[in-house]
Amino acid sequence: MAALTPISRKPMTFVLPIVAIVGAIAGMFVGTSFGSTTLGFFMGAIALAGLACVYVNLFDNERMVRWFHIVGSIVLGYLAAGNIGILLAGLFGWFSIWFIYWIYEGRYRAKLLPYLTPGQVLWHYTFYVICGSIFVFLITPILVVMPLSFNAQDFFTFTDKMLRLDPEGYSLKHYQDFLGLREDSNGEWLRSFWNSLKIAPIATVISVSLGTLAAIGLSQSHVPAKRAIMAILISPMIVPLIISATGMYFFYSDLGGFMENSLGMNKDFVGYVKVILAHAVLGIPFVIITVTATLVGFDRSLTRAAANMGAGPVTTFFRVQMPLILPGVISGGLFAFITSFDEVVVVMFIGSASQKTLPWQMFLGLREQISPTILAVATILVALSIMLLATLEILRRRSERLRGMSPG
Amino acid sequence: MSDTTDSGPMLAADGTPLKRSLARALRRQKIRALMLVAPLLLFVILTFIMPIASMLMRSVDNEMVGEILPQTVVEIQNWDANSGELPDEAVYAAFAADLVQAVKNKEHTKLGSRLNYEQTGLSSMFRQSGRKVKNWDPVTDGPFKEKLIKAHKGWGEIETWAAIKTHSSKYTSGYFLNAIDMQKTPQGIAAQPEDKQILITLFIRTLKMSLIITGCCILLAYPVAWILANLPARSANLLMILVLLPFWTSLLVRTSAWKVMLQQQGVINEVLVWLGIVADDNRLEIINNQFGTIVAMTHILLPFMILPMYSVMQTIQPTYLRAAKSLGATNWTAFWRVYFPQSIPGIGAGSILVFILAIGYYITPEIVGGTDGVFISNRIAYHISKSLNWGLAAALGAILLAVVLVLYWAYDKIVGIDNVKLG
Q1: Would you tell me how many other CB atoms lie within 10 Å of the CB of residue A226?
Q2: Over the stretch B344-378, which tens digit does the pLDDT of each residue have?
Q3: Which range of residues forms the domain containing residue B141?
Q4: How near does any CA of chain B get to the CA of A47, in Å?
Q5: Least CA distance to B33: which residue of chain A?
Q6: Contact B137, B97 (CB under 8 A)
Q7: Are residues B225 and B364 in the same domain?
Q8: What are phi and psi of B320, to 5 degrees?
Q9: Model pTM?
Q10: A316 within 8 A of A309, measured Cβ to Cβ
């Protein structure tokens, strides 16, 4: 951490131009939406610089000024643009007053090294802004989907009512369509969701059980042809899905034909078996990678100690080794689960309509009939991935604690 | 120490020589490790490696012509395609016999569409002649030369027979040649007609766009990885969520989100119109073209670049930078000469990973790529499910697979497969 840098108030000739620039940019946006960009540009610059001048010269109580400024912005925003104005103006008010004092009091220097030149300080914050915009790029598409899924219209865009935060612009109808509660919904969404929930757990169980055993085998000290074996086991992750799908398409249709005709199995059942086998093999690399990584930190003397005290290999595995590597196994399982749950290319090639999974249905929805129900499904899936992420984080901390490392 | 001393070989507790005992223990360990790996290895080989191997076989397999026209392929070997004359009656008779049998087995249309890949028009020829020859008797109804030419004048053209002869061998390089816009003709290997040459263009486009996407990912991921590695752990963990949430979100969700963002009435266009930067009747076309594919795929693959870079940058000591600066380096020199060289392994690992993933992408280009933003994978899918030219699909897949395997090998050399980290 950088040393504490003494901060001092900056002269008005430094503060006012910077504040004016921020005001001008904000004013430009407001001006554009009301019809005149240039007018907004100058009005914004003058207004914010003037306010800054008044605040820092006439008032001493910073807290009071802050509240006054924020409340004032909200009132102005409401008068100008209604509900949405409250939100935008409130946010801008909060930011602008913080920014004025941040510049004026010289707080931007407080956490930096004392010997930095002004140019370096400027670069430091420019870099933060660049990084911030990349993070915005990463997260915006996911955030945009959420409010749109409550759209009362059958559009992929924000309607005027939604922008005015009018309750009439929002509805749960796309969620009802997903659940098959509306008269015109055909239940395809729910059916494909159940299919995904049937296929993914079974595929996960197969890849986790086989994968964990193999990872334990691979982490022994003497494994012949270890690199070659590893390369084969990781290959389902590396080979492009379209190639795996092409290969499986031919091979599994022969296999399916054999199972139906020679063994006399049910057609539906064979379809599920094919998809589950394919998904299991696609999930295996993730299990191998995560479990091997956990086993690197595993202390081998523990198994020897267990053997010394008379435990057989099976007891040792289930009572000593398994509890310690369990976090790695579970996170590998989550990876395998999400791989299967999210997979669409292979299932489209080898499955038939009765095995239609949720991603398949979404793909059809995106390509053929553009139905906003996709956005409702997307929101549900984002919630699901947030839950997965939280689980993984908890597991990671637990694993580090078990191995005696401090939680990061 | 040698294992023989004056009193004979050194012995283990049970009386066997120590060397043999150790060797046996090692062997037992190896076998146990292999036994643990075996079930999975078998599973992967059966359900994954074999299907891919059978796909590779299919790209050179050409048994259909020989199976459906068994007598013709034997007889036609005696005919010289460059002689300028039609084959003699023996070939026509053999062909008539084969065709009658094929029509009985309802296989002639299949063969027609197979040969149609090589020469357009053969499919309809087989279909039309099939109806006419249905009731012929191959033994008594001869001679067949005139009758066949009467049934369809195509049988009186040398090109038809030349095509059959060229593609009568059991294995063919024809699909691979087609995959690189060439074709096998009776006169040898030649380029496809201009209007059918699209695959090379597609391969080049796939490579070019994958490179652009990889480049964009490097540019965007480097600052983010740097800031994650250099912030205090608490804030870095919070920012990490912003990277991992897209990583864990379904691919379809992210693709549909980009559709919502980029389309003509989409979020970006609406915002730009509202701000007055773009006129309402002149909205940006940023979807269903290469730009849309690049933006969406950069977003989708960005976490795969950030995570390897981050794990490399975490190991770089910040003191090196400070040391460089205290020795008089400017900010830029310190970064470029000290920090950047140490971060190159991360860039390499991330780039190969992103490139491998990008080159085989199918779903995203299919949805946001329109016609000029699609990849070679989309063509493979088209040949599998629409045109049913499976041999060509397999050949295209084999070429793509070869490219990916070379990259995979490079990745293994540079990074090591067991060093891949997730999450």
Answers
A1: 16
A2: 888 988 898 899 889 989 999 988 888 888 899 99
A3: 64-169
A4: 21
A5: A217
A6: no
A7: yes
A8: -60, -45
A9: 0.85
A10: no
